[in-house]
Amino acid sequence: MPEGHVLHRLADELTCAFGGRRPRISSPQGRFAAEALLLDGTTLRQASAVGKHLFIDFEDERVVHIHLGLIGRMAIGPVGPVVGQVRLRLATDTIAADLRGPQGCRLTDPDHAAAMVARLGPDPLDPAADPDILLDHVRRLRRPVATVLLDQGVLAGVGNVYRAEVLFRLGLDPLTPAAALPADTWRALWDDLVLLMAEGKRLGRIDTVRPAHTPEAMGRPPRVDDHGGEVYVYRRTDQPCLVCGTPIRRRDLAGRNLYWCPTCQGGR
DNA sequence: CGAGCATGGTGAC
DNA sequence: TCACCCTGCTCGA
Q1: The pTM is what?
Q2: What is the spatial distance, in angstroms and rounded to an integer, between the CA atom of A208 and the C1' atom of B3?
Q3: So what's the pLDDT on residue A207?
Q4: pLDDT value of position A125
Q5: How many other C-beta atoms can be found within 10 angstroms of the C-beta atom of residue A237?
Q6: Catalytic residues of A
Q7: Which residue is nearest to nucleotide B10 (CA to C1')?
């Protein structure tokens, strides 16, 4: 689940449900119990997201920093019994937010939060982000564009699905060195990520087939991916490319699965 | 029912 | 580059 759009959506939902209120805070699992006790009964100001990092601001300069990692998730819904390992629960009389399996959930302060954000590259979901920072950065990088897209210090919030999909949509060979791509191409990558991730946040799922160019325009019907969104290449190994019919390929790159169409995106 | 895997990141070598 | 962490789902026995 968790690429940047999930965290931004979550931040909005948390602010909406708990902003300005004093939710009950607990850690049924116990691993955040001391911190939960400290925060319980204090006012939650607002939640925000930068890249894949989620920050929940409370009064008295207290900030909860959450990173979902690969398997973490936060479920917001009607209050019910605690099910499974819940690291953190925020609850009013009617709504509960349950955090499970996060890579990190820590109590920190605004300075530390700012320091973490300072290490991240521009976030396509941040309206104030400056893509020129990205363009300057990638000019000096020889690593493959596919590797660079997942580097949160270069670009914040992109995960494995958006990486595969944006490279397909722009017809780029994933192994092209980042610095070998013209600035215009990087600008186009940025612009497409802004579009796709905003759509992802709005819909609550990743759908890369419909937004910019319709499947009709590309001569093929849409396909619905098992994961709930419509995608061109992500996890479609050996299935025909929706544009040219060539079997989609998969390989390991720096420990992550990479998916691409060898015809639409050049050799290799 | 157990193994393997997943949209991520860290820390040791 | 690798082992490892965390949860929950799917797949094959």
Answers
A1: 0.93
A2: 32
A3: 87
A4: 98
A5: 13
A6: 2-3, 52, 256
A7: A103
A185 touches strand C (CB under 7 A): no
Contact A150, A158 (CB under 8 A): yes
A149 CA → B11 C1’, Å: 22
Q: Which residues contact A166 (CB under 8 A, 6 or more apart)?
A: A149, A158, A189, A192, A193, A196, A208
Q: Which A residues 8-37 have CB within 7 Å of strand C?
A: 29
Segments of chain A with pLDDT less than 70: 1, 211-228, 267-268
- Three-point CA angle A218, A219, A221, nearest 5°: 100
Looking at this protein, which amino acid is placed at residue A263?
Answer: T
Q: Which nucleotides of C are covered by protein (CB under 7 A)?
A: 1-3, 5-8
pLDDT at A73 (0 to 100) = 94
Q: What is the pLDDT of residue A210?
A: 74
Q: What are phi and psi of A83, to 5 degrees?
A: -120, 130
Tokens matching residue A21 = 């209120």
* Burial readout A177-188 (b: 16 or more C-beta within 10 A, e: otherwise): ebeebeeebbeb
**The pLDDT of residue A216:** 45
Smallest CA–C1' separation from A255, nucleotide: C1
A138, A147 Cβ separation under 8 angstroms: no
- Residues A5/A200, Cβ–Cβ less than 8 Å: yes
Separation between the CA of A226 and the C1’ of C11 (whole angstroms) = 15
